[in-house]
Amino acid sequence: MTATEHRDRRFVITGAASGIGLAVARMAVARGAQVGLMDRDAAALGAAADALGTAACAIVCDVSDAAAVGAAVAQAAGWLGGVDAVVNCAGIDLLAPLEAVGDADWARVLAVNLTGPMLVCRAALPHLRQAGGGTIVNVASAAGLSPLPNRTAYCAAKAGVIMFGKALSIEAAPDGIRVNAVCPGAVDTPLFRTSYESSDVPEQALEHIRQRYALRRVAAPEELAEAILYLSGQRSSYITGTALAVDGGRTFH
Q1: Is residue 230 annotated as part of the catalytic site, yes or no?
Q2: CA 170: distance to chain centroid?
Q3: CB contact set of 136 (below 8 Å; sequence gap of 6+)
Q4: Cα-based angle 213, 227, 5 (whole degrees, multiple of 5)
Q5: Domains, the chain, ranges and CATH?
Q6: What is the pLDDT of residues 35-91, one digit of tens each?
Q7: Fewest CB atoms less than 10 Å from the CB: which of 74, 172, 180, 231?
Q8: Spatial contact of 253 and 227, defined as CB atoms under 8 Å apart
Q9: Residues 92, 95, 98, CA angle at the centre, nearest 5°?
Q10: What is the percent of the chain where pLDDT is above 70?
Q11: pTM, whole model, 2 decimals?
Q12: Across residues 210-222, what is the average pLDDT?
């Protein structure tokens, strides 16, 4: 691996204001890429882009809004001069037993976690095709491989992302476009922290989570970024349609 591994590659990254998406953006820029950052948190997104300097542009966008996604991807492609790689990191969680899940809550989780990646991919495909091929990495979840209680909407959406990517990989292969998924386990992000910080004894809740994992720890976002950038680069040129578990051994899938 070199510091110029992704030199001059043009990335569109959703959920880029924090967590895994921000780690991917930082690492991609450090390795020579330019990045179009998409997120609905305008303040955090602006700060992320400012920190990355002239290699990044910030585009505020809710990935569940089809019209907004189309405009945002077009804006990113225009600023970048094309698109070579897409990384779908935007996501939300919902921790509740099914009987407590309202229709609007269920719909929102699927809209962001499943429909969002579809909208971004659909908007990006013409740009990837015009570039002569490229890569798509959808961030799913280990919960899409091995379920968790009280997360029916989240598990269903993330399992859908995995199969969506497998189907798209077949469609996109003739155009030289590879599509893969990364399935994280517990990662130290703002989204993950919400799963235990509201508990009566947060440290005890966090330890209970750690015990699900063979490695008995929570990952850093950069560990996921390494896997995502591997699947976005030439070293993975014969890999498509896969779901890579980067989960500390929770699923052993």
Answers
A1: no
A2: 20
A3: 85, 86, 87, 88, 121, 124, 128, 165, 168, 172, 177, 178, 179, 180
A4: 155
A5: 10-187+221-245 (3.40.50.720)
A6: 999 999 999 999 999 999 999 999 999 999 999 999 999 999 999 999 999 999 999
A7: 74
A8: no
A9: 115
A10: 99
A11: 0.95
A12: 94
The residue annotated as part of the active site, out of 154, 196, 213, 230, is 154
What is the rounded CA–CA span in Å between residue 138 and residue 231? Answer: 10
pLDDT of residue 252: 81
Take residue 109 and report the two structure tokens written for it: 């989780």
Mean pLDDT of the chain: 96
């989204």: which residue's tokens?
191
Q: Check: CB of residue 235 under 8 Å from CB of residue 218.
A: no
DSSP 45-92: HHHHHHHHGGGEEEEE--TT-HHHHHHHHHHHHHHHTS-SEEEE----
| Both structure tokens of 250 | 């929770």
pLDDT band at 2 (very low <50, low <70, confident <90, very high): low
- C-beta separation of 16 from 221 below 8 A: no
Contact 181, 168 (CB under 8 A): no
The token pair that represents 80 in the structure block:
């970048």
Q: What angle do CA 192, 196, 200 make, to 5 degrees?
A: 165
Beta-bridge mates of residue 214: none
